[in-house]
Amino acid sequence: MAHPPQGDGAPLLSAAMPPAMAEIKSQSVDELIKEMNRMPLFMTTLDETDGDGGQNDALEALKALAYEGTRVEIAENFRQQGNDCARAKQWTDAKEFYDKAIAALKAPKKEPDPEDGPDVVDVTDIEVNEEEDAKKEKVIEEACYINRALCNLEKKNYRSCIQDCAATLRLNSSNVKAYYRSATACLSLDKIPEAVDACSLGLALDPSNAPLKALQTKISARKTHLDFVEKARREREAKVAAERATLSLALKSRGIKTRSTEQAPDLEDAEVKLEDKMDPSSTLSFPVMLLYPTHAQSDFVKAFAESETLNQHLEYIFPLPWDQKQEFTVNDVEAYMETIAGGLIKLGKKMTLGKVLGSGKCEIKDGLVNISVIPKSKSTEWIEDYKKRRGTN
């Protein structure tokens, strides 16, 4: 290639650019960065393809190196990578490397390739090497299990942590870290007896172990707290049971009948209750629904005492805001309750609720007393309509 003359006019000659450099020079900056990202040395993201829909050969070759060598060498390589991630607190990545190390140790040994040809090997050396490898494998396996237990503990996979500690102790029953991590995981799950046991076994091996001593104090404090909570729960349940039994006795002694169904209404905190929950002779009160069926309206009395009359409540409830014709006055209404047999019983407005319920003719359904309040002028018509609906005469 000719160049303009320089100096004395003689042409300056240069070698042609290598093909690879020429190809790079022809690429844009983005294309060059993308190409470099496919090279393991320069990768910023994990690229799996070679750009033509196939695999990245350089990357696959690098991955394959991780599985080159004996089981001990492969497992140790993964263990070291797991340790690096653990030191950086990259618990998920660390756990994956320990998974691979354990899997490598459990994989069947590779058979020699027949194409490599027969080698003359001293049988004594093979036995010694196998024995040494077995010892190394056990050491690596123990380290991987106990380190994976740490990863699971940090990731709050407490049951997996306990399983890894158990696997560690099967390999080495004197591994104090396994007792510590197992006890910590058990404590997190409130498995207090197991935590106490693991901590005690660890301290039996290393009585001066400061972390185990501190953990023992935590376990003791948690046990005290849980015992207190459990005691309070039992006392609370015993109290509720006693109150329920007292209420049942109070209702039975008064001859008041009750019944529950699957369609119980939501009364929130309203309930049949005694003034003194532990004294069956104290005053009973009941949630009462006052129904006005001729106008599809109602009122709710949260606590209607057994010693009170209907009049006492109607006096503050009336006049009703929706009663435009003023049909509902204390003197101009009648009250009815359904009987157990399906009929109606008329309530004297000056009769106490306790006396009505104690007659044995009515019942409290789902903890609620229903009383229908009807204007006197419409009571006969309403009763006839009720009988037709019930199919009675």
Automatic annotation (TrEMBL):
PANTHER family to which the protein is assigned, alphabetical: TETRATRICOPEPTIDE REPEAT PROTEIN 4
Xref: CDD domains: CTWD_TTC4
Family, per entry: Belongs to the TTC4 family.
Protein name: Cns1/TTC4 wheel domain-containing protein
Annotated GO MF terms: Hsp70 protein binding; Hsp90 protein binding
One cellular component term from this protein's GO annotations in UniProt: nucleus
InterPro entries noted in UniProt: Csn1/TTC4_wheel, TPR-like_helical_dom_sf, TPR_rpt
Record bears the keyword Calcium: no
Superkingdom to which the source organism belongs: Eukaryota
Keyword Cytoplasm in record: no
Domain Cns1/TTC4 wheel: 276-386
Phylogenetic classification of the source organism: Eukaryota, Fungi, Dikarya, Ascomycota, Pezizomycotina
Species of the source: Paraphaeosphaeria minitans
A UniProt-annotated Pfam family: Wheel
GO biological processes: protein folding
Keyword terms, alphabetized: Repeat, TPR repeat
